[in-house]
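Section 3.1 - Work completed
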Amino acid sequence: MLQVIAVNNKFPGPTINVTTNNQVVVNVWNNLDEGALLNWNGIQMRTNSWQDGVLGTNCPIPPGKNWTYRFQVKDQIGSFFYFPSLGLQRAAGGFGSFIVTNRPLIPIPFPMPDGDIEIFIGDWYNQNHTSIRRDLDAGKTLGVPDGVLINGKGPYRYNQTLVPAGIQFPTIRVDPGKTYRIRVHNVGISTSLNFRIQNHPLKLVETEGSYTQQQIYNDFDIHVGQSYSFLVTMDQNATSEFYIVASAVLVDGPLWERVTGVGILQYSNLRGSASGPLPPGPDDRWYKSRSMNQALSVRTNGSASGARPNPQGSFRYGQINVTDFYLIESRPLLKINGSLRSTLNNISFRNPSMPIRLADLNKVKGVYKTDFPSHTTGRQPSLGVQLVNATYKGFIEVVLQNNDTAIHSFHLDGYSFFMVGMGYGNWAEDQRGSYNRWDGISRSTTQVYPGAWTAIQISLDNAGAWNFRSQNLDRWYQGEETYFLILNPEKTNKTEMSPPENVRYCGALESRNQESSSAGFSAHAELLVTILAALLVAILTL
């Protein structure tokens, strides 16, 4: 029997489905035996980092207590997910889909699908998240996962040796001749996965809030923390079921064979069960550029409207002067003060004693420093709460250099950035000549291949404190993160909201808390739809 973190007694949790510019109110009750927060992966929280749900923006919700998130999905569309952000809790579940649909007046750039299907893929360890934490604290590494889950279930028994009998597997039922929008999220711990559906091409149409140029793939690599939308047409002869596969990518060794999730695509006029070998995935042990070339092929659909009626391509990022530059390097794990830690520019992040902006507004000194280095320096690796002191309304270029031996995914809360380039080797200034300055995809999570670099550019127009982290949960837990502190020198609540009425305090300010179950509704009414959801986060035994 496995224990998972469920939301409203569901694993994965319920879908939150909203429309652009809706106000969203989510009351989270924490029935875990430790503090919890929910992060809204890719939701930008415009001017409102108070709702972001990480330790640099929010105090944890204590066990047995609740807290109400209240935010607007301003000028966004697309496929996202929520998850518990503290202490590797996502390794046990607690995630669910967050869909933002277009307003009726703005058409989507493809025919309306006949249905919408959510698929969560992710590597899985049978030990719970607290046990994984203890192992990492003791200096152990994750090792090879026990498998891959698809929608919270184990693999179909495609192989009598690798897959034991009696495992519940996912089945997705469809009607022949119909086209479905399939949203796929990698909510795993640390493994990049190749996704494919037997005999069914995948037409990519959207990723993390940006409509893409529509290209067809037989299989697609989805890295930790990433979300993609595909159109899939059910045009096959339903003589049998079809395999849905998510398997580890860019790995080697016989133990990784078990790191394969298998579900079933089942037509409503089915006449037979799935059998035979799985559809093959890429053999990129020998052709590692395949995955990078595929990533570079994902480009913005410049003629499509996004959340607003103007085309996505109207923001000509390639013509904007860069105002600041950071080269951020990740390296293999190393010991700091006797503990195994991960670093960015030789700094291993230590969680602040209270949220960053809460410390600012209450004039609490010494919580953090704004001296995160723009390059790896000769300094000794150390623990610290160093933030990137970014310039409001600036246009920053960040090069992520991965000198580790594994793929890393990186995410920035509060923003989408333009992914303008990737390459193997060490980045140098002449690499800018290879940048895509016209239709690079705008997204919030990007992969960085081992021994390679990824360049992103960001228009810094959202004030607040925004978490920049590795999406690989082990590396995040071990210190691979920082925050971008972006402040408007002109103090105004139009560019950064004041703390909500239900703000939680912790650290030196904890005595200010006033417990309440109603939690934080503004007194004034707004001419916007409000989506209400109550999420109960608790342990569920499968």
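Second construct:
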Amino acid sequence: MGIKDNCRNELRAAVRHLSDRAAEQLVGVEQDPAKYTPSHTRFQRGSSSIRRRFRTATEAAFTSTPAAGVSHVATPPVLEDDNEAIDSDFYLLAKSYFDCREYRRATHVLRDQTGKKAVFLRCYALFLAGEKRKEEEMIELEGPLGKIDIVNRELVSIERELSALQKNGSIDSFALYLYGLVLKQKGSDNLARTVLVESVNSYPWNWSAWSELQSLCTTAETLNSLNLNNHWMKDFFLAYAYQELRMHSESLVKYENLQGTFSFSNYIQAQIAKAQYSLREFEQVEVIFEELLRNDPYRIEDMDMYSNVLYAKECFSALSYLAHRVFLTDKYRPESCCIIGNYYSLKGQHEKSVMYFRRALKLNKNYLSAWTLMGHEYVEMKNTPAAVDAYRRAVDINPCDYRAWYGLGQAYEMMGMPFYALHYFKKSVFLQPSDSRLWIAMAQCFETEQLHMLEEAIKCYRRAANCNDREAIALHQLAKLHAELGRSDEAAFYYKKDLEIMEAEEREGPNLVEALMFLARYYKAQKRFEDAEVYCTRLLDYSGPEKETAKSLLRGIRYEMDVEHLPP
């Protein structure tokens, strides 16, 4: 064998070796220690309280039967095209250009290749070349007239070629994925769904195809209408789709079932944390993220959500440690910038916080969290026009982001425009009906002087009270509104309920005093003097004007009790 042949063979082997990638879910499946050495299971060491929690007494059954909710119907592997030269020099050269983002060169190299891999790479390179040009045109033409609708000019030619291949039956699952992507961009959603379903049924391991299919399932009805083969990848898809459709409890159940098989998967743990974050189970979310960081100490993905939890709980030292950690790992990741921005926001340095959110957006202009969090910072800085702009950019990226709609409502409320605020609060509460804060915000909007729709406010506060109102605002406001409307019985009911919760949580404050005062007067008016005396006696423990009022009420109560006992 000559020197040229040796070089050619070595280079071909190098291309293959350097193209190898690891699969996260592959190491997530627990391996049999009897068959594998410790070096093969090094990612699965240690005992985790979280992982143990999802194991049951029937864990042994996993060796013979699948976990509940996880389908294990085998899909035959895709066979390579016999007529296709897998090690084609043209294909390897084009792949090298593709990896260097020289998409036009890759397309040109494969112009005469007809193998399925070559066709896919050529069409995909052409698609990305069109996307790249589209972004360049957007930057060049963006101006004072606002957004300009620019399309990928390569879509028509790609669609024509892939459509012909599909009709001939010579298209593979990857080309079907690309065909679905093109149809989606052209607005043919129904056909795109059909094509993507065909793609994932023939090759279920392509997560990109599943992700595109999910983005076309905007309702539960559409999702349920899909004709999908039973495969464990379908369970991953459904869990993800439920999460995007805000069916968080259903998503959580799916991921917990999947964890029975993929018991060491960091991805599934992170998704469970996301579902619990949406359900506002912050304590559980914090525990999961702490475990994730122990197992994967250089992880940055999803850590911005962890920083949101630490921010909400005002865990200053933990957030400071996390910000320092991601800064040392990779400070130029959008997630890292958002974490550092949260840290400065908690410190009250809002200008510095905005600087880091802006940096995140320079790295990824479509990074949703950065737009929303930057809007919050502008609200804190009383810069409402900038806040409105940031929130609008967020809803442009994802119209289902309830936080951005809520932020818009807050901004317009600050500007004294309750009708606009109410419109945006309604949108946010439609997207997240289980969040008590949104119902309270809408109720407060109804209470404003311009609207003064107290009955509507009462309805909203009732919904908030039924949605685990952790801030304990709804019950107190319900009591006040009923008292204002002269409904003493309803007011007393809510004051008493609020008082019970405050006593259980050992909370003090003006709300407690107000509840005691109202109930003392109410029971005095009802001539239930013993109950009234109990509340008055409790008020004597306070040193403000309420103490004198309580003394006066007690004198009145005792006088009326004496009068009642006088002979006729």
